[in-house]
Write a structure and sequence with these properties.
This is GNAT family N-acetyltransferase. By secondary structure, this protein is an alpha+beta fold. About 25% of the residues lie in helices and about 35% in strands. A hairpin with a 5-residue loop joins strand 1 and strand 2.
């Protein structure tokens, strides 16, 4: 499924499922997760955002169903040069549009203020706080239900 969005710069961002051949390009934005990215692309749970079909990836997200059998955006990553252009919002919308459960969750560290602002703007609701994953930086969980979910 392709999803287009006109951003503030009048760019068109296309979001679609990532294919295994794109794993190396996605690892270009997130080299530390190369092995995971390859696995996610093979499993069909990664979505990629691009300006055009042949342009470099602007970001990606991963939608899994391993969190209490509910949808969970495991990871959202936007290339530094593509931030503040609506790419993250578009990736979250794609996850919500394709989620097959009534609830969709994600999480971010308390220190990640940009992600918290993005989630708030995108209509996600705080759902809880978990201590102990990253020492001194609790994890905030967010929920999205209803609009955009099946």
């Amino acid at each position: 499924m392709d999803m287009d969005m006109d951003t503030e710069k009048n760019d068109v961002v296309v979001v679609r499922p990532a294919v295994p051949a794109e794993a190396a390009a996605l690892a270009g934005i997130d080299a530390g997760r190369r092995t995971s990215i390859e696995k996610w692309c093979r499993q069909g749970v990664a979505y990629v955002a691009r300006d055009t079909a042949s342009g470099p990836p602007l970001g990606y997200c991963v939608l899994e169903y391993t969190f209490f059998e509910q949808g969970f955006v495991t990871l959202l990553m936007v290339a530094p040069e593509a931030r503040r252009r609506g790419v993250g919002h578009r990736l979250l919308e794609a996850a919500a549009a394709t989620c097959t459960t009534p609830k969709l969750f994600t999480s971010t560290n308390v220190s990640n203020q940009p992600m918290q602002r993005l989630l708030q703007r995108a209509g996600w609701t705080p759902a809880g706080l978990l201590h102990g994953l990253d020492e001194g930086d609790p994890e905030l969980f967010y929920l999205r239900k209803g609009r955009g979910l099946r």
